Amino acid sequence: MACSASVEENRRKAAAGIHAAATRGANIICLQELYATRYFCDKESYDSFALAEHIPGVVTEELQVLAGKLNVVLIASLFEKLDSGIYFNTAAVIDANGSYLGKYRKNHIPDDPGFYEKFYFSPGDTGYQVFTTRFARIGVLICWDQWYPEAARITSLMGAEILFYPTAIGWSDSQSMEVNSEQYQAWLTVQRSHAITNGVHVVAVNRTGREEDMQFWGGSFVSNPFGTILYQAPHDKEDISVVPIDLSESDFYRTHWPFMRDRRIDTYQPIVNRYIKS
After folding, report:
1. Which residue numbers are catalytic?
2. CA 88 to CA 97: how far, in whole Å?
3. pLDDT < 50 regions, the chain
4. Which of 70, 80, 174, 195 has the fewest beta carbons under 10 Å from its own?
């Protein structure tokens, strides 16, 4: 969805979208990164810290009631305040009976023009997380995490059947369409590769709409465990879609393409180094 400057309006719109998706038969509903606000990380402003909230807290409690009423699992990405001066980019997970299952705090924090997240967020301290919900074991990673194969691999090894990526990424007006297109294709390709190498479904949920000089590119998608796109959202309009997922496909693809079997874990120690000098 596209976000306005009104937090209450964004929350109402998200709740309406949750109702609409549930009516269409959705079991697991994932909201985009920082769904309740505009993407405030486009600039460094102390005023934006007032947008943060406690998790669990008032907002998650409201979502718990909604999840229980509609019998759906909710993944909600929020700006979390732990204590004075300690903030995280956090996804809360709520089960279909309304129970709060826990949270994942974003591990990889970017700091680029238009994405000044290190100003706002501490690096995540929850470790990677898998949540056992009524409908599936799900792993939740957030936006910049999606570029790191290590995050997808670890979460998959922990038992995730589906990887969800709440996201906020877009095209800058200062870039050419060629550059913008290349960036989107890279975003799509790297996440499809996580699906293939881990044999799991991948669901990426990105915001759309214009904010300042950024056109968020939408393009949310669902990939099967071999990288086939089952659904892809438009770039320039809001959309709600319910996509059937067959969890048994993971067993099929992992059996016929046994990447997990053939991993040489005895050779991977160098990956824990920042740099390896040759």
Report:
1. 33, 106, 143
2. 26
3. none
4. 174
Task: For Cα atoms 265, 269, 270, give the angle at the middle one, nearest 5 degrees.
Answer: 130
pLDDT of residue 263: 97
Element holding 30 (H helix, E strand): strand 28-30
Q: Which of 182, 207, 178 is nearest to 42 (CA)?
A: 207
pTM of the model: 0.97
**Domain positions in the chain:** 7-255
What is the DSSP secondary-structure string of 178-230? HHHHHHHHHHHHHHHHHHHHHT-EEEEEE-EEEETTEEEE---EEE-TTS-EE
Contacts of 153 (CB under 8 A, 6+ apart): 197, 198
Residue type at 202? V
How many Å apart are CA 205 and CA 32, to the nearest integer?
Answer: 5
Number of residues assigned to the chain: 278
CATH number of 7-255: 3.60.110.10
